[in-house]
Known about the structure:
Layout: H1 3-33, E1 53-63, H2 64-70, E2 87-90, E3 93-100, H3 114-122, E4 130-136, H4 143-150, E5 161-163, E6 166-169, H5 179-189, E7 195-199, E8 212-217, E9 222-227, E10 230-235, H6 246-254, E11 261-264, H7 273-278, E12 282-286, H8 290-302, E13 309-312, H9 316-333, H10 337-340, E14 344-348, E15 377-384, H11 389-401, E16 410-418, E17 421-429, H12 432-436
Parallel strand pairs: 6-7, 11-12, 11-14, 12-13, 14-15
Antiparallel strand pairs: 1-3, 1-4, 2-3, 5-6, 7-8, 9-10, 15-17, 16-17
Amino acid sequence: MTLCGRFCCIVNRNRTFLQTTVSRFLLAMSESLFTPPPGVRGMEVLDRQAFNLTVQVPAIKIPTKAIGGLLKPLKSILLKRPNTKKVVDIPDDQQHKVLLFDPDKVEPEENLTGEHGKLLQDNGVTAAPHLYDLQLGYESWTAQEVLTAVLPEGEVTTAFSRVGHIAHLNLRDHQLPYKTLIGQVIMDKNQGITSVVNKTNIINNTFRFFSMELIAGEDKTTVTVKENHCSFEFDFAQVYWNPRLGTEHERITNKLRARDVVYDVFAGVGPFSIPAARKRCEILANDLNPESYKWLVHNTKLNKVQDRVRTFNMDGRQFIQEVVKKDMIDRCQAEDADLQDHTSHVIMNLPAMAVEFLDAFVGLLAGETLQEYRPPMIHCHTFSKADDPAADARHRVEEVLGAALPKDHYIHRVRDVAPNKEMMCVSFQMPLDVLLTHQGGTDPAEPDRKKLKTET
């Protein structure tokens, strides 16, 4: 390589290094530009005035009459901050306004180039951006920025579940000293949230709700929620509702067809039953929690499906062994062909315990005279911490039933509940032998198998 070539390589490498260094410097400046004052660190009682700050951003004086035509084409480089104006009035000058720019995209004292620069020139603006003193307040910061500035490093949380007007958090022990502040910030920064609660213990497996503590806002726990084109009303402090399960409710409902029969063993306030009833399925819905049962009945009326939903307030195993069994037999022995021509589904959405309730199906129809019987489809939810959650879920279901699942069973991963803990749904047609086998393990007098058929 010639001496001249080496010189050019050195210059190019230095230019690249300089450009990279300047870019990193400007990025660091822009990141620190929109950081609340350092004095708020460790604050436990929210002081909104402490977030006031003056920063300098690029700005250009623009003729008032040109503003309307410039905002849309310049949108990509204009300042974007919560509750902060991009266009600022100038005292005693109605002929001009100040347009504020994103400091990441526009440098002061340098004329804009390209299409943006030409656009400004066409509107009579030739000046380079100058630095403008912008007053920021608490309303100008996002919840993430506020909490990152206040809480000790690594203790930030802005994640919450929304149930109607309530924000529900799961704070860790080291975050509890800041709980009131966290709740207030979340309520301030999210329109429509008027109450913030913190979960204080694990879900009660008997009645499926958790204890919670109000940390901000009004003490009002009766909510209205819309999901899958249905409305639900309930007392969030007394029943189980998980907004993260909306997709799962829809997935199961989409498997149903008009005239199907649904046995909802742990129905809650109706997130499976009511959408299914709207599809013109016939529903038998049960929940042990009296409060859930009350709201289940209420929601059937609210959604005008009470004629297609029969409700029960029983233990899940009792519901299967008495109500489900009787309904299955009645339909099977009915002379009305319409009662026999259906697919039945059993939904068991109590993931902490549902697998244990499957034993209620063992021998459920032993000794019964059944005509043209088609066993139900089971949709059983469960948790798994195993390395192979699907295999673990299948094994536990088969262990309780004492039989292998059909080859066409399907195991769906619903969601991650916690690190190394997943929620699964095992769907399968209940093996006929399980329903017809005595609990003690001896087979009853075998019915006429030629009249029994399984779903293909």
